[in-house]
Amino acid sequence: MNEVKLTINGIEVTANQGDTILKAAQNNGIEIPTLCHHDSVKVFGACGLCVVEAQGIPKLLRACSATVSEGMIVNTESDRVVKARKVALELLMSDHKGDCLGPCVLACPAGTNCQGYIKKIAEGDDREAVRIIKEKLPLPASIGRVCPHPCETQCRRALVEEPMSIAFLKYFAADNDLNSGNPYKPEVAESTGKTVAIIGGGPAGLTAANFLAIKGHKVTIFDAMPKMGGMLRYGIPEYRLPKAVLDKEIALIEDLGVEMKNNIKIGKDITFDEIQSQFDATLIAIGAWNSMSTRTKGEDLEGVVGGIDFLRAVALGEDVSIGKNVAVVGGGNTAMDACRTAVRVGAENVYVIYRRTRAEMPAEDIEIQEAMEEGVEFLFLTNPDEYIGENGKITQVKLQVMELGEPDESGRRSPVAKEGEFKYLDVDTVIAAIGQKVNPTGFESIELNSRGIISADEYTFRTNIQGVFAVGDATNRGASIAIAAIGEAQKAAGVIDSYLKGDCVPYIAPFISKRTVTAEDLADKEKSPRAQMPHRSPEERKHDFKEINLGFSEEEARKEARRCLECGCHDYEDCSLIRHANRYTIHPERFAGALHTGFMEQRLVSIERNQDKCILCGLCVRACDEVAHKGILGFVGRGFDTVIKPEFNNPETIAICKDCRKCAEVCPTGALKILNK
pTM here? Predict the structure, then answer.
């Protein structure tokens, strides 16, 4: 066969005479996106994605059908080509109503594949579940115990009865893996010779270290505390997170080759400049370790302490003489940790002072409920007006009585003082748990924002200093939940990896397709109650720091995992449509308008067909006709109302269809799902 020479994207290549431009490009390692092409069927040219520009030819050519010629000069990524592809993708995505990812995955700040690992738990494969989790999160046993699980807030199972117990399933699988004698350990790439310093050994620092070590970089963590773990160790009580569990997970990260140096204070034991000079990149993940001021008169009295200062002292085993009567100011999870810890270290009367009602408290409801069960008294609609003391030590809190006014920016009703109404509370200690702030001592060269927090670029995590990055509670938005810091650190690790390779590539959230689901859409689902975590009784648990939760049994966990509705697309990892959509920046909302009325059908016997995901590329129709030689599938209707439907003429055809599955094998979008029948 005669050969021809042509140029594609500035590269001279050779092709056989009669080859299409698409084939010539593929044979030379050049990808031209396409959705409707498959080698097993004839050219159709439906999707319009494979257009290219050829010198001397005024119109764009479809690479799947246009053939090569001697001396042809082709550009597969010219501005004109990219613009045409974007329009094609935007039109397709504007009417594509499939869920790429389940709402649980989208709600997780770390993007953990909840649906994927829950499916593996349901199948009894906890090791594979942990492997899936650790693609995003290296501390599943710890985070599974303490995460306020925003994933569960968005779980569609709540439209049936109750959301999945996603966090506790994570902790179940992770515990099984940790206790297996051979816990999962990711493969580490060959050494790159590059070095990274991470300052701060909390959830963010440990996460970044984990992923950078996996990529082959030599990582050293510097931390000011005696042990690694940050707020997971020193801010969360033992009864919620046993430190033996945390130690096991940290040891697995250390086994990846991460060097861990404790009791190193920046500016005292080593300067920030010294660290910078010794490493190719530096990540600051120091967290927010200072308690915020209540700005209340008398807060400098002895006996007024910060929430995280109190929790840290208890975690370090220091003497905490708090007396009999303790008041905790605040309504978040730190306040709940502080009041419940106060009960355990001997306080007889513990009060929570909160200026709104229980309905507005940001703490998890289970934390509030368990605190009440342990004897904590909640003084709602009160706020400290003054701390009163004798001989420099607090003895009483003057409480302003509040009422609720109009909603504020967070949607919660604003507390308003009742003029002249006060209460007095006798106390030995006040624990102020109203927030945390950064201590930037030792990092004077790093630029801070107006709130005194490290300023880091939203997409690259870079600071004002070359090669220095920052993530977590110490940056931009301030203190948040651990999984948010982990999510940032995981993304930053990817950016730092690209920086070390010579090109700092920013993190851009991928484009995904999603749809709205109502309770009516799920009305046919059988109701199955959520598994309840067994726990120790209040009378027993409030006297010690042993873990409260007892963990799911094997039967409970498997049954709970089987409740998952599997909302996300089964074919997301291999979906050509979403891969090409993320190749370019697209805006399908430009073509918002009438949508096709989608439907689900299983008349193909062993295949479920989701019309909402169909892009009418015709691959399934042609595979059925040209490969299977059955012609069961066909286009029905015209124009906008066109759909693909099957037509069975006899029982023999149905029998053949059951085992064929050729149509599903070529589908580029996951519109066809092979059922386990």
Answer: 0.92
